[in-house]
Amino acid sequence: MSKKQQAIGVDFGGTSVKLAVVEGAELVSDVHRIPTQDFKDSESLIERIVVEIDVLKSAFPSVEAIGFGVPGSVDFAAGVTYHLTNVQGWAEVPLRDIMTEKTGLPVVVENDANCMCFAEWKYGAAEGFEHVICVTLGTGVGGGLILNGDLYRGSQYAAGEIGQMSIDYQGVTGPYNNTGALERYIGNRQITEWAGRLYDEAGVARPDDISPESIAKLAQGGDPIAGQLWKNVASCLGSCLMSTVFLLNPDAIVIGGGVSYAGNILFEPLREYLEKSLPAECFAHLAIKHARFGNTAGIIGSSALALSISKS
Amino acid sequence: MSKKQQAIGVDFGGTSVKLAVVEGAELVSDVHRIPTQDFKDSESLIERIVVEIDVLKSAFPSVEAIGFGVPGSVDFAAGVTYHLTNVQGWAEVPLRDIMTEKTGLPVVVENDANCMCFAEWKYGAAEGFEHVICVTLGTGVGGGLILNGDLYRGSQYAAGEIGQMSIDYQGVTGPYNNTGALERYIGNRQITEWAGRLYDEAGVARPDDISPESIAKLAQGGDPIAGQLWKNVASCLGSCLMSTVFLLNPDAIVIGGGVSYAGNILFEPLREYLEKSLPAECFAHLAIKHARFGNTAGIIGSSALALSISKS
Questions:
Q1: How far is B245 from chain A, CA to nearest CA, in Å?
Q2: List of E strands, A112-193
Q3: A154/B131 touch (CB, cutoff 8 Å), yes or no
Q4: Lowest-confidence range among A60-74, B175-189, B256-270?
């Protein structure tokens, strides 16, 4: 049997850039962290990333490729970053070619939600499925699609923006002036605010330190207002996922990201919503799953994607 | 240059089954019509369809394949019909194998909205595009998808149900108990009723013979209430299409079916809606087009699909 291939996965976030050597779904090195905001431009941050890559390459000389998962839009074919969320100075950076030149290894640059989706499909909750919708719930709501057994990117590599889909054509305005954008209902901040409103409306004192986590714990402990909040979140998410199922007829939905720790407090009403709203034969063939990977999804997905592309 | 291939396209509707011989995008025979409701079961209707196919085959002996576009769900791989709208007795009919045996020709059986989409992509408004969303507006709202240059069918061949997507998570109930289903806002009947409500609310007498056609004519003539109605329709359709664009990042949207004769009365506010709601670079690369084919889309698409499959 051939030795397992190794690649470096780089999870490029607004707070930190995290790098590790990955073999299959396992991190075989420590995770190296670089504070993103310490660097004012792409050149200086790239130099620092190259230093960390060189350290990892010295320790793991069999590394074959490098994958970058970045928080925003990319031109996947060209390996160029466009608009990165919360990171200055990364418009039109030809990251793939720069990194290939500096490291001598094949490099891929992909959107971070697509990397998460690829990780779940290749090694995680969506393994073996053909058509998959991945959603990440956190500050924003992101997504990725596996269609016909491959990442689906769309005409400008911008597909999968589940958080920008509308759940109310007369609703609140999203970041693109898109009325009813899902993430303006169930992003972290919106969940917290919604909970506050529910407590106020009920005339019940707001819990201290209100957050999606604390409201999830309260709901698990039987707090009816917290429970209602998560049912509302499930209705919003369920409505959008129902739409994606009618459009794409997937065989699996995978949900990850910060908010998904709410666990069955979210998943149970979500399953009920989809069961009541979809044709029975469609729901019967639809797996609804928790993501396998948490914080490491970006590192694992980007490294797996790098290996899959450099092999093809 | 090789002679153009010919196939029989069968547009199986709730009112009539229409058949013709097609060469490329041209009907080269008359359209034969069979009144669907004259036949109580699938066996007798199939016998009659075979009679008409034999007539067409005698006149056009070079016909190479037969395509069926049917109004409902099919198992495409097996060539079996499931739930056909407004047609009794067609649950689990192995139409492809029956027809292959009776005619000696390769046969494909596909959903009618997918056939319309294939016709527009192969020969019509979506020719040359890689990722296409097709919508048909009529009694109901149907759809089909071309993704990565091929019909996308999903895990049970049920993809493309744009009319069942939600535009309001707290809205009206659709046929699957799906809250906010688009077709419950902009189906023919709903458009007519909505127009009636707008005239009532304005204290203006309803026009005689109110219908989507008559309201489109009134709007084109400058009637402000009729104009408002089509703006409302454009908002509902626009909201749903915006969601599909964020999810799939297509390069073209094609709109056909009965309601689309409303023309610019619908298309202008729809374009405005999408322009204001999508990232600029995304809208700039999105073609929004009228369908090329009207009533013949099903015949042309099913015949083209039959030839494309029998060749592969």
A1: 8
A2: 132-137, 141-147, 150-151
A3: yes
A4: B256-270
What was the ipTM of the complex prediction? Answer: 0.96
Q: Is B4 on the interface with A (CB under 8 A)?
A: no
Cross-chain Cβ contact B170/A166 below 8 Å? no
Residue among B155, B160, B161 whose CB faces A131 most closely: B155
Q: Residues of A with CB below 8 A from B247's CB?
A: 143, 145, 159-162, 165, 244, 247-248
- pLDDT tens column, B113-128: 999 999 999 999 999 9
> Which of A141, A166, A244 to substitute to test the interface with B, most B CBs within 10 Å?
A166
Question: Which residues from B are below 8 Å from A178, CB to CB?
Answer: 242, 246, 277-278
Q: Does A153 lie at the interface with B, CB-CB under 8 angstroms?
A: yes
> A244 and B247: CB-CB below 8 Å?
yes
Q: Report the pLDDT value the prediction gives residue B306, as an integer from 0 to 100.
A: 98
Name the residue type at position A16. Answer: S
Residue A220's H or E segment, with its range, is helix A212-220
Interface membership of B214 toward A (CB under 8 Å) = no
Question: Nearest Cβ partner of B250 from A143, A155, A239?
Answer: A155
Q: Which helix (H) or strand (E) holds A217?
A: helix A212-220
Mean pLDDT of the A221-243 span: 97
Degrees, nearest 5: CA angle A97-A100-A104: 155
Chain A touched by B236 (CB under 8 Å): yes
